[in-house]
Amino acid sequence: MPFTATHARKCMPATLQTAASRPAGPSRLAVALAVLLALGATMVPAVGVAQAAPAAPAAVHVTATILPPLPGESDSRAWAISERGEVVGTSGDRAVKWVDGVPVALAAPADAEAPFEALGVADGGAAVGRDGFERFCVWGDTAMCATIAWGWSAYATDVNDAGVVVGGTDDEYAERGWYWNPATGPQPVLIEPRLPIGADAENSSTRVAAVNDAGQIAGTTSAWLEDGAGPVEAFVLEDGVLHVLDSPGGADSAAADINDAGVVVGTAGDQATLWSGGAATALGTLGGGVSEARAVNEAGQVLGISETADGERQAFLWADGVMAALETDAGAVTGQVRDLNDRGQLVGESSEDGHAVATLWTLAGASETPVTEPVTEPVTEPVTEPVTEPADGEAVGDADSTDGGSAPDASERGPAFEGGAGSATRVSAASVTAHAAAVSQARFGDGAADHVVLARSDVFADSLAGAALLHNGPMLLVDSGALPAETAAELQRVLAADGRVHVLGGAQAISDAVAEAVVDLGYEVVRLAGASRVETAVAVAEEVLRRNPSATDVVLARADGSSSDPSAAWADSITGGAWAAATRSPLLLTSTGGVHPTVAGFLADMAPDRTVLLGGTAALSPAVEAAVPNPQRFAGSNRADTAALIADQLWIGQPEHLVVINGYAADGWAYGLPAAGLSADFGAPLLVSQRDALPPETRRQVSTACGAAAVELVLVGSDAQLAGGLGALLGDTCTAAGS
């Protein structure tokens, strides 16, 4: 096999690899990279390359933490770390993600074969790598592995928060780097090498190391000439154009990483090198003849390996013109170092009892809490403004309201959350309309609702924004042309005579006959409708502001999904809508590519202190973020991760309750939207699961809650939505009951 795990997110020239980590049977680019550093020890620095200011050897203290392997395994390796501190790598023959230091095996697609390697991770949590069939793999909403038409062996090295994946593929003689944006095309695009006159295209190569959130790709191109190996050059690919980075003196160069500002690091000649603004800066060594840069963070700090004056290898951190050796209390850091983030965390591996073990090193004085400054799109460690923590049973936010703002007190509530701490109970019924009625019964005593929201039972288009109205009223579901008996019965039970009923959508969504049937029951009907789901959401938002004119936040979600995954249109709206219901904040919809004029007008009139964006750039593009006031993005690597982020960052305090819905089923919205009211009443974040499998992001959230203080879970939906044994699975760190 031409390649091994050396195709990591941070490209590793061969001289400083251990013999065991070098690939067998390398391509000519791999040979060229090996020659590049092998010759480095006898080369003088390239003339014209800016030299970092000489400084006496310095040292930076780090604390080492061993990341445990998966149960039953002894070896592990860490390849990359996100800004959230999530680490990906391998343990035994499985790909693994360490979350808060706990290893979680990444799911293996049904048609894949071990061994698996996770080599790169986005700040939002998506991971990429390869499988034993020599295919590249992506772990996001689902796990998938695929081949590339060119070459024998494919692998993925990095992924950005827009979902752009980069990697490589090789045959017997050459390599090709590639990039793939699932949003714009079904197939990866090969990156062709730069070919000087006389070069052999078939045997020339490109290798890709990393991609930043601006879509710039860093890598290395090499040409094979008639008389042997030609130039090896670091490059940046931007908008499909390959730009070779300057290496004065003609020294060969290789790129290893790129940050969001476009700063590239790697090696030129025998020196770790940084390229910024078109200029190359040699970073020096720790006293020896060779050094290489492995990674660069957003602050411009560079992580790498250098030869020391006594010929040993040692990890270094370069910052502000000074290269400093990394040291622990036990001595020099001599293991593999591969990646770093802005939180002062570095990852790689060290040796313990003859085994390679994934290791996290933390810089002295580094914060162990998540980054709170906004980071380049998408924001995954958002600033959270103080919100009054709810008392038991009170929703987050201002308790005052112009119109029926208070949530029902304990005496008015139905039977939900009666199992006690550490239990898992279920709210379900035989149909979606009966289910919505069951949620209403779980929330409210007789006549206790301030109002009722009616939504269509078979199409979610006009219903998404309605979650924001569920602070003190239930959502009930109706057929487009008829009022179901169970809905009429619950309406009459929960809402006093002359109460207000909000009908979501125009007459094509919910007919005038349904509205008239509600009037005949003795209620006031107010239709909230617009020309599309976007305008309907604005009409709902105006009603939310009428009820809560002191609202300072607005929530923005995507209006449409894709033809291949229509559930993407509602997944973030429901998990974020639960928080909107609790805080009585308007929830708006817009297209992925831009802000709808009606939405823009609402935002201009409201002038919110914060616009909460739900999901990554595949949901709401950078153009949307740039066009709204005071944006703050909450984006995970998938819908389960986004729900967990919302629970962590938007909801305040340690929850005593959690609501779990099926966030993947085609009709999951019909169960999830009414359940947003449960979240509002009890300060209970809403999480998502598949029917039979609990996503690791949801497991982490539930386990954290259970570990800190026993939490009560409510599973929303029947066995068809959430499997019967899932309650025990969810509550495995607590005591599961009633599942």
Q: Kindly state the mean pLDDT as a whole number?
A: 79
Distance between the termini: 49 Å
Structural class: alpha/beta
Broad shape:
elongated
Give the uncertain stretches in residue-range form: 1-29, 31-49, 51-56, 367-415, 731-739
The fraction of residues assigned to DSSP E strands is 25-35%
Structure annotation, total helices: 12
Report the major sheet: 9 strands, mixed
Rg on CA atoms, Å: 28 Å
Number of strands: 42
- Which percent bin holds the helix content? 10-25%
Write up this protein.
The protein has 739 residues and is of the alpha/beta class. The protein is built from twelve helices and 42 strands. Strands 2, 23, 24, 25, 26, 27, 28, 29 and 30 form a nine-stranded mixed β-sheet that branches. Strand 29 and strand 30 form a beta hairpin. Helix 2 runs parallel beside helix 3, helix 2 runs parallel beside helix 10 and helix 6 packs parallel to helix 9. The protein is elongated, with a radius of gyration of 28 Å. The N terminus and C terminus are likely disordered.
Secondary-structure blueprint:
Layout: H1 28-38, E1 50-51, E2 58-66, E3 76-81, E4 87-91, E5 94-99, E6 102-105, E7 117-121, E8 127-130, E9 136-139, E10 143-146, E11 153-159, E12 165-170, E13 175-180, E14 189-191, E15 205-211, E16 217-225, E17 228-238, E18 241-244, E19 253-258, E20 264-268, E21 271-276, E22 279-282, E23 287-296, E24 302-308, E25 313-319, E26 322-328, E27 331-332, E28 336-340, E29 345-352, E30 355-363, E31 424-427, H2 432-443, E32 451-456, E33 475-478, H3 485-494, E34 500-504, H4 512-520, E35 524-528, H5 533-547, E36 553-558, H6 568-583, E37 587-590, H7 597-606, E38 610-614, H8 622-627, E39 631-634, H9 639-649, E40 657-662, H10 668-682, E41 686-689, H11 696-708, E42 712-716, H12 726-730
Helix pairs in contact: 2-3, 2-10, 6-9, 6-10, 9-11
